[in-house]
Amino acid sequence: MSLTLIRTGELHHQTKATDHSEPMWQRTRAGFTYVRSRGSLLRLFVIVAVVGSLGMNYQVWMALMAKHEFHRNAGSFGLLGSAMAIGSVTGAVLAARRRRKPDLDWVLNLAVVFAAVLGISACAPSYAVYAFVLPFCGMIAITLLTSANATMQLSTDEGMRGRVAGIYFMVFTGGSPIGAPLVGWVAEHFGTRWSMAMAAIAVLATALILRAGRRADVAAAEIAAAVPIV
Question: Is residue 6 a part of any domain in this protein?
């Protein structure tokens, strides 16, 4: 039904720029080379990798917090999931209504806020406070991921967009086999709150380092542009 409602006259038809005569491995390598040559994309992929591998383990944290920290039952765990879902839906709506074009600076700022909210949830003194903070976690997380995806799409040349998108989702999901066991190990040996704090610190440190590097690159570019060519 949704497909039948598409106004095909408003679609933008584009010619495929990919040379399919090249072997698959060469096209894949070209995608990685393109990402590596674009500093903004490379930084975007780094923060997405850290957030995806360490910051998106709420199913683990909610279960452990409900059972071990607040000594609640399965029903209480379900309510935490509902609170998280409410925030996620709200974040998706807000991201869709945002009129400004997202960029790397916006994504990094969202990562800082996400780390702060995650850190606050790790310090929640009661079940009620934790349930109150969770919608904000979901809202910021979805807004961050939606903005990162849009930034990747809008800052990539048309001929490379498919390959870069594939690398993006590989980076986002590929860290889970490492990040999830690490988060679980920290929770088992040091406690759930320390597991959440570790993830928050990792996201915050990565965002601040990437933001400092971006500002340094911008300053260097401005200095280079101001120097007259002899």
Answer: no
What are the residue ranges of helices labelled H in 38-126? 39-50, 58-64, 74-97, 104-122
Confidence of residue 216 (pLDDT cuts 50, 70, 90): confident
Residue type, 203: V
Structure-block tokens of residue 195 = 């597991």
CATH number for the domain that contains residue 187: 1.20.1250.20
User: Which residues have C-beta within 8 Å of that of residue 61, sequence separation ≥ 6?
Assistant: 183, 187, 192, 195, 196
pLDDT digits 0-9 by tens, 126-173: 999 999 999 999 999 999 999 999 999 888 888 788 888 888 888 888
Q: How far is CA 8 from CA 3, 4, 16, 154, in A?
A: 10, 9, 18, 22
Task: Please check whether residue 225 lies inside any domain of the structure.
Answer: no
Tokens representing 48 are 């997405």
* CA 125/CA 138 separation, integer angstroms: 19
Distance CA(144)–CA(215), nearest Å, equals: 20
Are 196 and 130 spatial neighbours (Cβ–Cβ below 8 Å)? no
Burial 159-185 (b: 16+ CB within 10 A, else e): ebbebbeebbeebbeebeeebbebbee
Overall domain count for the chain: 1
Distance from C-alpha of 140 to C-alpha of 34, rounded to nearest angstrom: 29
Question: Is residue 141 within 8 Å of residue 55, measured between CB atoms?
Answer: yes
d(CA 230, CA 227): 9
- pLDDT at 105 exceeding the cut of 60: yes
